[in-house]
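Deviation from plan, reported transparently: FE3-S4 cluster complex.
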Amino acid sequence: MYLTNEEEKMLEGEYGYAVKKAMEILVALGKIYNADKLIPIKSAHVSGISYYNIGESGLEFLKDFLRGVRVKVKTTINPCAMDIERWNEMGIGREFAYKQLEIIKYFREAGVEASLTCTPYYSGNRPSLGDHIAWSESSAVAYANSIIGARSNRESGISALAAAIVGKTPYYGMHVKDERAPQVYVKIGFKLRYESDYGVLGYIISKYTCGLIPLIKLANKPSETDLRILSASISTYSNIPMYHIQDLTPESSDFDIPREKITIDKDDINEGYKYLHDDFDKPDLIWIGCPHASLEDIAHIASLLRGRRIDGRFWITTSRSVYLQALNEGYIKLIEDAGGKVYADTCIAVMPLKGIIENIITNSAKGCYYARGLNRLKVKVYSLNEIVESAAK
Ligand code: F3S
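Because the crystal trials were delayed, the predicted structure below was used instead.
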């Protein structure tokens, strides 16, 4: 791989330990994927910052790696294990909370914005069409590639952090236009009704297309929430970094329509819902906000709950910046008056919930995957409207 003189110096350690380590990671990645050079990036987004998920060894690694270093580009971070202002109310212990806050402190000292969200594109880190970026968090990568038309591989937390420190990433995969071409045409033969249908669709497409990049022909226009939920699901149940939606993805008309074709019908979606339904009666928790809820989502939920009362625990997770806007608009009060909670900075997948709750209802197929996998919960997936109608009086 070609390196400039400056990059050679970084690799030799002239700019310190962290820069040397970061360069070693990028060069190793570049060699694995046959990249011929590094390219500058506009931003980075780093996942894997929850103390619950990375533990003491992860904390020690970050402390060591980030000591005395500054990131070179705008860099944001994924949700952590708690709402950093209301952790006490969430039942998080003091010792755990302080460890989580310590991790965030190391990032802040390195110049990283503590956005604590998987939707950085709503919180000041929104790339433009064609921008090269290095993001981890698969749902955000799929959204950035597919909906915005920015260019990112599916980075790991550590490779995204290395790219943030160097300000560059190896030139391969989604950074190369031809690699972004769709490989299979997927026609949806009927109109999808609910946002949760898009999560189920992501699961079904992943199952049928086996890692190929799909060009999806929808029968109706999706909402912003639908696109966010689809991006999260399709990138969770497969390893693809992007998909195309005909007439919506900025580059979808730049490529030939793939010859291989699949049609998805209502029975497929019904089968998907069955797969995403475990057996239990009453949920311990209803969870909305995977990926993190937008201001419009929260406004919609507030309007559904106005003057009503929720039976049971109802949590919405979002970013701090969206939370503050929703607070200003009065939406948080409406939701909390109805018995719901809106938590910022965190999500169910990265919270210490194992053994505390056993089953949840959510409108997100990705939420289902991680609740089952990381917290060993039983899960059912329904649309937001169905959830509210069954839970609120
Ligand atoms: Fe975001 Fe957590 Fe879902 S990180 S995409 S809310 S599993």
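The mean pLDDT is 96. We consider this an acceptable substitute for the interim report.
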